[in-house]
Amino acid sequence: MTIILTYLLIVFGGYVASSESGMGCGPEWPLCNGQVIPILEGDTLIEFAHRVIGAILGIITVALFLKIKKSRPEQDLKSASWGLMIFLVLQILLGAVVVLLDLPAIIVSIHLMIAMLFLANLIWIWRRVAVRNGNQPSLHKNSIAVLSNLNVVLMLLMLTLFLGAYIKHQAYGLACGWLDCGNGFIPASIPGMFQTGHRLLAGALAFYIFFLTYISIKKKWNAGLQNRLMAASLVVMGQILIGILTIISYIEISWAVLHLALGTALFAFVFEARVFASSVKSMETTLKVVKSKPQYLD
To answer: Same domain for 88 and 176?
Structure first.
């Protein structure tokens, strides 16, 4: 539930930005236009709804933290739960800074990255609890190689998302057409350079994911990993199409929000695949240790 709510909050945040409702409560925080509950209409309704969803998520996160702490978790799960609280506090503080400083692009972009890390932490906790409860994935001999490649994919994905957010909030989204940039393929302006850089990163990311999906099928990797990579490939194809439609429609709100929704879903899929592969590697290590110990008969 917490993962789903976090995802919805990120996507709704994209709607707030695309509808230019970020200052719907004025330059005030935590109050909204000087009130605890403002007049709910227009931009104020949109921005206040985003804050309410965030507050609900904060309460649920604290409850989750207390539940994990009460369960006497292992050290890694305990650390992850504290990490969750740190990310929550950072998000609250950055949210306040974004409003008080009138939506600076760099801070808004960092705000999105912290939200992604918060989502990743939740996914890790979810998968870790599943493993602890005995839902172990099957063994995979190439798990170390898979982990390395997925780490690269995640880094490319974070860079692509960050640059995309910065471009959006700097209003550089229409610096290039859907195929070319200006009068050719080489940008002649700073906004065009940012937009081209974003596209090059997105292209490299798409190629990498398609390549890993092909290799996973050819090398007959673990079926769970294959399914996750195929799902990621489908999301990438959708993301490319939506990205084109976003530009063609002159950044129409629905396409822009869907673009963020697919990008966030892609991050979640890839990170979950990375945690899955890590669980496999951990299981392999444990099995090797057990096999190396002498066995005695009663």
So the answer is: no
